[in-house]
Write a structure and sequence with these properties.
38% helix, alpha+beta, Arc Repressor Mutant, subunit A
Length: 153
């Protein structure tokens, strides 16, 4: 049995474009912005969610107001030999990192670094404690390099 793959058309792309910038818009506001009928917007959004094009709706926080304005990219090298001995992988290290509230995102990458974590904390002092007490305590973390974000674009 062949199942046809859903293809995005220009209406879907317009809807996604509006939602990307204004996830809080109502379907009526999206219809007004895109000049697509309200009922079509409702049906398309339902279909886009069902087909997995829209994973979730979220918000953008003012990180300074919630005392998380200090951003650091932490480049993590895993001790692959140690992980193998413990029957673990980089994915296990990434899962451990994702458990911390201060970790916004974790990516496994190629090159000299194995994992990149984006960390958001209040200030340098909080980051220092987080790095030494949390990240360095994870089994399999060999070493880290930190890059402080000076300006978010």
């Amino acid at each position: 049995m062949y199942i046809m793959e859903y293809k995005l058309d220009s209406k879907d792309k317009k809807i996604l474009g509006v939602l990307k910038e204004h996830g809080d818009y109502t379907t009526r506001e999206i219809a007004k912005k895109t000049l697509i009928p309200f009922t079509t917007i409702n049906n398309r959004i339902r279909k886009l969610k069902q087909e997995g094009f829209i994973k979730k709706f979220t918000i953008e926080l003012d990180h300074d107001k919630i005392a998380r304005g200090f951003v650091v990219y932490v480049l993590i090298s895993a001790d692959l030999k140690y992980l193998k001995e413990k029957n673990k992988t980089q994915y296990d290290v990434a899962k451990e990192l994702k458990k911390f509230d201060s970790v916004e995102r974790v990516d496994i990458v190629s090159g000299e670094t194995d994992i990149v974590a984006i960390v958001r904390v209040k200030d340098v002092k909080e980051f220092d404690n987080f790095l030494l007490e949390k990240i360095h305590s994870i089994d399999g973390v060999a070493n880290t390099k930190s890059m402080i974000v000076i300006h978010e674009c």
